[in-house]
Design brief:
Helix content is 46%, strand content 6%. By secondary structure, the chain is mainly α. The strands form 4 sheets. Strands 1-3 form a two-stranded antiparallel sheet. Helix 8 runs antiparallel to helix 9 (176-193). The longest helix has 23 residues, at 130-152. It is globular, with a radius of gyration of 22 Å.
Length: 477
C-alpha cells in the first residue's frame, strides 16, 4: 500500500502548532506543498488517498494490546518492560505508551479527507468506483471510532479533515453514545455503497472493506447495544451472504494465520514484509506481533523478543484433543531448538515466514479483524439472549466440532451464555477480542478478578492531554 507523506498523525500536527505559536508564521502557505485543493484531481489520486487510509491501520500490536490486555489472555515474561507489565496486570497508567490513540486518529483524519474531497473529483475514470471508495472510507472511519469508544468510552469526535488554521484543534470529548451513533451512521453509509465482492482479487476482497466486513462490524456493534435481533440478523447476512465465507477444516486451522486471506477471513490488515518507498528510509510493512510473541532465537535462527506469553489460565482452558492448541501456543520444552531457551511457552498465531536458511524471520503475518468463526459465535450469543437456545447451541457446536471437540453439554440459557464466552476465549485468543467481550457483557470483574471499575476504560495518554488541554482524563487515572 502506497504511503502518502502529507498525512501526519494528529498529535504531531497539534504539537507543531503549539511549538510554532506565531500567527504570522503559521498563516503562510507553502506554494509547493501538497494540499487537499491541489491533490484531489484524478481517479489515481482517489485511489492513493483510500490506500493511505488502510496504511494507517497497520499497527496490529495496538488492536491486540487493547483487545486482549488487562484481561486473562496475556502473561508477562522476564523480558516484559514496565509498559507490558502494566498491560498484563491491568493497572495501566497514563504514561504507558500503549495508551496513545495517534494511530486511530491518523486513520480518522485520512478517511475524513477522502469523504470530503473525493466527491468533488470530476475525472470520468473515477465514476465506476467513486461510491465504492466512499464506502471504504465510511467503513474505516467507523472501525477506528469503534475501537476508540470501546477502549476509552469518551473521545473527541472529529468528522471533518483539518484543512484550515481557523479550525478547532482542541476538540472536547464526545459521549460514548454520540460516538456509537457515528459508528452506526458510518456503517449504514458503507453498507449502501459496498457489495460482497467489490474487487477483482481475493487479496483485495479480504484486505479491503466489503459488505461482509460491514455486516460483521454491525453484528459486533449491535451486541454492544444489546440489540440482539439486529445482531443476529447482521451476522446471518455474513454467514449466508455472497462473500463465500466458510470455516477452514479443523486439521487446517493453523492456515488461518499462516496462509493469509483464507476462505474463513472476512477482513485482514495486510502485511508483506516488502520494502516501502525510499522516502520511508527502508522501513518495512511488518507485523510487530511476531517479535512480541515469539521466543529468542537459537544459533543461526531468528526468533522474537518474547515480551508476552500465554496466560496459564488460557493454556489450561484447552482440552488435550483440541486442534487449535498447536497454533494458539507452543512450549519449547527441554530441547528448545530452534529457539534458545528451555520450557518457554509462547503464542504461535503470529510466526512470520523464514528465509535465508532460517536466519531471517519476516514479520509478515496478516492481522485478522473479523473472520467467520467470530461471526458465528456472535450470532450464537445473540440467539441465546433471544431465548433461541437450540439454534444457538447448533452454532456453538459448529466451532467445537471443527476444533475436534464433542458437542457442548450446556442446556440452559445461563450455561450456554458461559459456554459461548469460553469458546470465544479459546477460538479468538490473541486476536484482540477478550477485553472487549468481557467489558461488553459486564463480566470483566467476575472473570479477571480486577474489581477496579475504572479499569473498564483505558486512560488517556499523558502526552495527548498535553497536546489538547480540553481533554479530560478518565476517572481513576
Amino acid at each position: 500500500m502506497k504511503r502518502i507523506s502529507y498525512f501526519q498523525p494528529i498529535s504531531l500536527v497539534l504539537a507543531w502548532f503549539l511549538i510554532v505559536g506565531c500567527g504570522d508564521v503559521t498563516d503562510q502557505v507553502n506554494p509547493s506543498g501538497i494540499t487537499a485543493a491541489n491533490f484531489y484531481k484524478s481517479a489515481f489520486d482517489a485511489d492513493n488517498a483510500i490506500n493511505a487510509c488502510y496504511d494507517a491501520f497497520q499497527n496490529p500490536y495496538r488492536y491486540v494490546i487493547w483487545g486482549d490486555g488487562r484481561a486473562d489472555i496475556l502473561a508477562s515474561t522476564d523480558r516484559s518492560d514496565n509498559n507490558q507489565l502494566q498491560i498484563v496486570n491491568g493497572n495501566v497508567d497514563a504514561n504507558n505508551t500503549e495508551t496513545t490513540w495517534t494511530d486511530m486518529y491518523n486513520a480518522i483524519k485520512r478517511t475524513n479527507s477522502v469523504l470530503k474531497n473525493v466527491p468533488g473529483i470530476q475525472d470520468a475514470a473515477l465514476a465506476s468506483r467513486k461510491e465504492r471508495i466512499l464506502g471504504e472510507a465510511y467503513y474505516l472511519r467507523a472501525l477506528a471510532y469503534f475501537y476508540l469508544v470501546r477502549t476509552y468510552d469518551n473521545v473527541p469526535l472529529i468528522a471533518q479533515p483539518y484543512e484550515s488554521l481557523s479550525q478547532d484543534f482542541y476538540p472536547v470529548q464526545a459521549t460514548s453514545t454520540q460516538v456509537f451513533s457515528l459508528v452506526k451512521a458510518d456503517l449504514d453509509s458503507a453498507a449502501k455503497r459496498l457489495t460482497d465482492l467489490p474487487f477483482s482479487t481475493t487479496l483485495e476482497n479480504k484486505g479491503k472493506a466489503t459488505l461482509g466486513s460491514v455486516n460483521a462490524t454491525l453484528a459486533d456493534y449491535y451486541l454492544w447495544q444489546k440489540k440482539y435481533q439486529e445482531a443476529a440478523d447482521a451476522a446471518l447476512k455474513v454467514i449466508n451472504g455472497g462473500g463465500g465465507y466458510r470455516l477452514v477444516a479443523g486439521d487446517s486451522y493453523g492456515t488461518i494465520f499462516t496462509a493469509k486471506n483464507t476462505v474463513e477471513s472476512i477482513f485482514e490488515i495486510q502485511f508483506n514484509n516488502a520494502f516501502l518507498e525510499k522516502s520511508d528510509n527502508g522501513a518495512k510493512n511488518t507485523n510487530s506481533l511476531v517479535s512480541q510473541f515469539l521466543p529468542l532465537g537459537g544459533t543461526g535462527y531468528t526468533g522474537g523478543n518474547w515480551s508476552f506469553k500465554p496466560a496459564p489460565k488460557l493454556i489450561n482452558a484447552f482440552s488435550s484433543g483440541d486442534k487449535r492448541i498447536s497454533i494458539t501456543f507452543q512450549n519449547t520444552g527441554t530441547s528448545p531448538a530452534p529457539y534458545r531457551d528451555v520450557n518457554v511457552s509462547y503464542t504461535n498465531k503470529y510466526q512470520g515466514t523464514l528465509a535465508n536458511g532460517n536466519a531471517t524471520r519476516n514479520s509478515d503475518n496478516n492481522m485478522i479483524i473479523y473472520r467467520l468463526a467470530d461471526v458465528i459465535l456472535m450470532r450464537a450469543e445473540a440467539l441465546n439472549e433471544l431465548g433461541q437456545l437450540a439454534d444457538a447451541i447448533l452454532l456453538l457446536n459448529q466451532i467445537r466440532v471443527r476444533a475436534g471437540l464433542t458437542n457442548t453439554t450446556a442446556t440452559t440459557q445461563a450455561d450456554v451464555r458461559l459456554a459461548i464466552e469460553d469458546e470465544r476465549y479459546r477460538e479468538l485468543a490473541f486476536e484482540g477480542k477478550r477485553y472487549y467481550d468481557l467489558k461488553r457483557t459486564g463480566r470483566y470483574a467476575a472473570v479477571t478478578g480486577n474489581t477496579e471499575p475504572n479499569w473498564l476504560r483505558w486512560p488517556l495518554n499523558s502526552v495527548d492531554l498535553i497536546y489538547n488541554p480540553n481533554l479530560k482524563q478518565n476517572s481513576g487515572y
